[in-house]
Structure of Sugar ABC transporter permease:
Amino acid sequence: MSTVTRPEAPAAGDTGPARPDGSPRAKRTGGRGARLTPYALLVPSLVILVAVIGWPLLQLVIMSFQEFGRAQVFGAPPEFVGLGNYLGVLGDPEFWQVLGRSVLFAAACVVITLVLGVLVALLMRKLAAGWRLLVSIGLLLAWAMPPLSATIVWGWIFDSQYGVLNYALSEWFGLDFRGHSWLLEPLSFFFVAGIVIVWGAIPFVAFTVFAGLTQVPEEVLEAAQLDGAGPFKRFFLVIVPYLRSILIVVTILQIIWDLRVFTQIYALQALGGLAEQTNTLGVYIYRVSLGTGDFGVGGAISVIVVLFLVAISLYYVRQSLKEDR
């Protein structure tokens, strides 16, 4: 009777079957090249980022320490002035007025955008599929419209002679708004600008928050409802903790975008607004740099704004990391 001999299991520490020449075969392990592969794949994108963003930013920083005007644009050598541009900007009362105006305006826009965006996202969560699709298409159309085009359309609505709003207030509500200009007074100017900016920013917040709402477990909400938690408690005690990281990122992005807003303010000023009383940081930098030709001072203002935005972003990121821990 023939017996079948089974191969013996390799002993502990054996490196595997031997090669034909009798030497043991090396065990395959991830080498140094495998560990460096992810970093190598990042090199092309890092090179593009450095070329597109890093190099212009470095040039801006260098320019901020120089006396760089129209003569330097046409070939004259720039003169190094050290911190002179920064001291001049920080000692200028107009800069502080523009900064305070921009911070207050951005804060109002951010709060209104977040509140309305979250409400729209909650509404989309409750709607049926057909209505949700209709709302999504409307939000996408508003989001896809270029800021300049949107500002011109809203400018027609608020036009002093042919605007729909003045006509409706005068004819339908009996108010005397014939020929009323919404852009001559700073308060009403920023009211119009806020509507344009918030209207264009709501879709991004709504879509982002709605994506986060789809990750909130339904059983958790049902358990909270069974425990007697009302809609407000369920939102603040259940939904908000799940969306905290998303809301922090959205808030940071909205602060950055609203502090450096340019197109809407500049276009409304061209439609009849008073530039001196309605300048924000983006428009102020443009007017200092291209309006007066002082690119060194404009660069210094830009660097100060960048540092200010980085400080705000770092604060929110640190708070987010503390809460995660």
